[in-house]
Amino acid sequence: MSDVYVVGIDMIRFGRFPDRTVPGLAAEAALMALDDAGLSIRDMQALYCGNLGQANGMVGQRMLAEIGQTGIPVVNVANACATGATAFRDAWIAIKAGLYDTVLAVGVEQMGKGLLGGTGGGPSPEGLVGSYTMPAMFAQIGIEHARKYGTTFEQFAKVSVKNHHHSTLNPKSMYRKETPLEEVMGAEMIAYPNTKLMCSVNVDGSAAAVLMAEDKVRRLGLMDRAVRIRASEMSSNPFAERQMAMPDFSAATRAAAKSAYERAGIGPDEVNLVELHDCFATAELVHYENLGLCADGEAGRLIDEGVTALGGKVPVNVSGGLLSKGHPLGATGIANIYEVATHLRGKAGARQVEGARIGLTHVVGGGPGMGTACAIHVLEKA
C-alpha cells in the first residue's frame, strides 16, 4: 500500500461569522488548501466533508456548488468532536485502499455562543455525574485526577495560561490575549476546577487538506512541501464490566495512542510536538498521561516545569489550542493537523517548534449515553 502525504493544507482564521454560510466557510478553506498544493478542484477524485451541526444538509455537495461541481464522490461525515479528523482519516483510507490518488478532506462548523454540549438527546446521567453538560463531565475528570495524584487547581489553570500565551503568536487564533494565572483562577467558575478561561471557545471555522499517494507526489515534484501520514488511528469505548453513563475518554485515547505508536513505529518520546483535545484545561493534563507523554500522576509536573510550553521538550497546543484558537467541532481535527503540518514544514513563524520532525494530533468526542470517538494522527516531515 502506498504511503499517503498531505500536499496542501490550510484553515481560515477562527472567529464568529453570523453572516456567512457553512458551505461558504468550507469553500474558503478548500480553496486555500488547493492553492497551497498548486491544484484545483478538477484534480480531486473524491471529497470527504466533516460537519456536525448541519450534517443533514449535504454540506460537501453544497460546498462544491460554490467552487466547482465535477461529479466526484462526496461523503459527509459526522462524529462528534472527531468529525474533521474522521473525514481526514476516511480520505487517507481511500488512498491506502488504492481507490484514488488525490483526495480533498474538509472540516467546517458554525457555532453560536454558549455551553458546549448543553443540549442533545439520550439518557440523563443525573445522580451519576451530577450533570449532562460537558463542563461538569470534564470537571469530574479533573477532580478524579486530583484525588488520585494531588493535582492542584493552580496546575490545571497553568494549562490555560500556557495556551493563551501560545495563541498570541498564532494569527489564525480566535483570541490572541495573555491571561495571567491570577486572572484565570479568578475568572467565573463554570464547573470546579474549570473557570470560564479554562473552557474551549465556541467559534465558526473551517480547515481543509489535500491528500495524495506517494507515487503521484513524486511524479508532480511536490515532495519538498509534503508531510507524511505515518499513522491514522481511531477508537471508541472498550467494553467494561461496570458501564458508566459518562464516556471513558481516557480509555479511548490510550487505545488509539497505542495503535498509532505501533503503526508509526515510534514511541511517545520521539514526538516533537502535539496538538491535543484541550476542550477544558483539565482534559489537557489528563491527556498528557493518556498519550504517554509522561507516566500516570506526572502531568502536573510537566506543566509546572514548562515541558509542554513552546521551547520545552514536547510543546503541546502551540496553536493556542481549543482554549484560545477555538473549537468549531467539525473543523477542529483538520485544524490540528494544519498546525502540526505547518511546524513540520518550518513555516510556523514566531511559534515555530525548532527542529520538529514528528508531530501528533489528537481529538476525542462524545457524551453521556453516546460513547466516544477518538482519532490520533502521527505526521512526519518528508
From TrEMBL:
It is an enzyme of class 2 (transferase). PROSITE patterns: THIOLASE_2. The keyword ATP-binding does not apply. Residues 247-366 form the Thiolase C-terminal domain. Gene3D superfamilies: 3.40.47.10. GO terms for molecular function: acetyl-CoA C-acyltransferase activity; lipid binding. Keywords: Lipid transport, Lipid-binding, Transferase, Transport. The keyword Repressor does not apply. Pfam families: Thiolase_C_1 (PF22691), Thiolase_N (PF00108). This is propanoyl-CoA C-acyltransferase. The lineage of its organism: Bacteria, Pseudomonadati, Pseudomonadota, Alphaproteobacteria, Sphingomonadales.
